[in-house]
Write a structure and sequence with these properties.
Among the domains are: 78 residues, NADH-ubiquinone/plastoquinone oxidoreductase chain 6, subunit NuoJ (Four Helix Bundle (Hemerythrin (Met), subunit A)), CATH 1.20.120; 33 residues; 35 residues. It is mostly helical. Helix 1 packs antiparallel against helix 2 and helix 2 runs antiparallel to helix 3. The longest helix is centred in the middle third of the chain and has 37 residues.
Length: 221
Amino acid sequence: MDVQTGFFYLFSTVLLFAAFRVITARNPVHAVLYLMLAFSQASAVWLLLRAEFLAITLVLVYLGAVMVLFLFVVMMLDLNIDSLRQGFWKHFPLAALIGVVIALEMAYVLMGGFRGMAASAQAAAPAVAGQQYSNTRELGMLLYTQYLYPLQIAAVILVVAMIAAIALTLRHRKDTKFVEVSDQVHVKARDRMRIVKLEPTRAAPMPSPAPVEAIAAEKKP
């Protein structure tokens, strides 16, 4: 076993352990951290497969942006872990069955894809011998030639999902206060502050003489 194979088994073992801990960790923050570890190990495996562009994209997009956002959101949410654990064993058989079906489907698709990829690589090996080969260039050629329409459809779906998320977040509610941007732009100083004129000094009111006369009348025999 050479060094590359050893690193592959090392990264794969850590990746499987991190993925298992993602679904078994009770603390959501720990689950997010394990997911970040899984993504980093997957990028290392892609580097071993000479897919540098995919590895860098995974690190920059998921580890650098998406997972950090997930971590902050999970930490800011007040999650009740006890309520999340309720009903776990009740739905475990159905969840295990669905997981086994998905695993079998993925294994069938991946094994068929690996066989086809090995056959195509053997057929195309003499043609690319002695030429400079770039994975990033070939990926770009495939995305913007053969898979151009699926790429555009995926982009439209993502834009629609983003607009829907913004619309759901900014829905009008009775307890929400909105400020018109045009009113803020055209506001002037006299509209924000009003000067009220007051007298600098005011004389204290004189006491009424009636109570003094009443007290004197009481003192008389």
